[in-house]
Design a protein that fits this description.
With 132 residues, the protein is mostly helical. The chain has 6 helices and no strands.
């Protein structure tokens, strides 16, 4: 379920980016990755406070947005075992390995915290993106 939650949070982030881009008439709906809009060059071409805040969050490695983006990218990486050098030549060349991790890398609390942060950000942005 962790992968599904990350996938849907990323989709919500992409939707928020599309909403901001639509309001400021930036890139079209053909943008399929949030990273394409979270680029400083896009901000330089059409400055907006919302996009600026998202880009700043994405740049800081300790922020929830940077962690979400990294977790989403990790979904597309193949599982890999830890590389351990063999020390004894008598050890078997082929051994059974498990790619399952003992502990999940992300907990429900952290994912829920990301969801709340994204929701609060979207609500705050929507208040400022309303045309009068």
């Amino acid at each position: 379920e962790r992968e599904a939650a990350i996938f849907h949070l990323y989709g919500a982030l992409l939707g928020l980016c599309h909403e901001i881009a639509g309001y400021y008439r930036l890139a079209g709906p053909d943008v399929r990755q949030a990273e394409q809009l979270l680029d400083p060059q896009v901000l330089a071409a059409a400055p907006s406070p919302e996009l600026s805040e998202l880009i700043e969050l994405a740049k800081r490695p300790e922020s929830w947005l940077a962690q979400l983006l990294l977790s989403y990218q990790a979904l597309y990486q193949p599982p890999q075992e830890l590389k351990v050098a063999k020390v004894d030549p008598r050890l078997a060349l082929i051994e059974a390995v498990s790619l399952e991790q003992d502990e999940p890398e992300l907990g429900l609390e952290q994912i829920e915290s990301w969801r709340q942060s994204l929701k609060n950000l979207a609500m705050r942005f929507r208040e400022t993106l309303v045309e009068w």
